[in-house]
Amino acid sequence: MVHVRASLSQLPAYVPGRKLPGAIVLASNESPFGPPPGVAGTLAEAAGGVSRYPDLNATDLVQALAARHGVDPDRIAVGAGSSEVCGQLLHTVVGPGDEVVFGWRSFEAYPILTAVAGGTAVKVPLRGHTLDLDAMAAAITDRTRLVFVCNPNNPTSTALGERELLDFADRVPREVMIVVDEAYREYADPALVPDALALFGDRPNVVVLRTFSKAYGLAGLRVGYCVAPPDVAAHVRKTQVPFSVGALAQRAAVVALGESAEVARQAALTVAERERVTRRLRALHYNVPESQANFVWLPLGDDSADFAVHCLAGRVVVRPFFGEGVRVTIGLPEENDALLALAATWKG
Ligand SMILES: *Cc1c(COP(=O)(O)O)cnc(C)c1O
Questions:
Q1: What is the pTM of this model?
Q2: Which residues are within 8 A (CB) of 65 and not within 5 positions of it... i.e. 6 or more apart?
Q3: pLDDT tens-digit profile of 108-150?
Q4: Residue 336 in contact with ligand 1 by CB distance below 6 A
């Protein structure tokens, strides 16, 4: 066998949510509403053009995103999902042995992408079910190049407020990149959870990460982006795999952005369902941390696998993190009812 990098041998593979034909899938935090109106028609129209390479610079999409956020286009960098953009950010600042700090548990792509970039992951335990920003700031050394702040945090669903975020950013050296991953922004209460771009996005070391995979309903097309200082964004673009965002993905994302009002309406429905599911689960004596995302976290510890098996037997797929908890995506009302019925019959 060929010589394989030692850092890869210990690396866990990404665990996708299970797909089970005919089952209710509440495992991957996808939108239950399908793609926004207009997307399917645009894809059909554009299908005949796929023998051509896409626009390398995703010009129309970058323009639309810049207009949306009220920033110059030179502050935007796109990638094949915000997972690729995470990788691009790491490749921009991390050299061999450099440290990357993030809370744990958090987004499972962080340790994988950190190792692939040749960095060393520094996992800071959560406090309760929330990122411990004090401990994360204290974990920064002169080898630290990047800190991921997942807000709201996947999979624990909790979010940090303005004061905590600002205090944290003030403590992080200007040479260290702070990446605020806002994959679930559309589901957060803006009165409680600040928009990082508005709060401190103009700082020279802050990057805000967004995706079309969740509320925008385009997970299968792979589009994400970051808003960064112009000099940082220019480097992040260099680390993108050329043409990684396909032509259909670019077109669909522009159409989806134009449907923001509909996306917001759908997100509000999901938030209302999230509150209903939370209330009901608590009434059933489940411990449910306050969610600001499109999923809830059940910290069931060693019972997590058993709960997931019970749900699977009822043809509902949830996402267990063995020994820690179970993440349950909020679906359509009838899907959530199926989950709640199973939660009521589980003998933990
Ligand atoms: C789902 C998710 C993403 C987005 O992944 P894509 O690659 O854009 O599909 C990014 N960050 C977090 C925390 C997520 O949960």
A1: 0.97
A2: 73, 76, 78, 225, 227, 257
A3: 999 999 999 999 999 999 999 999 999 999 999 999 999 999 9
A4: no
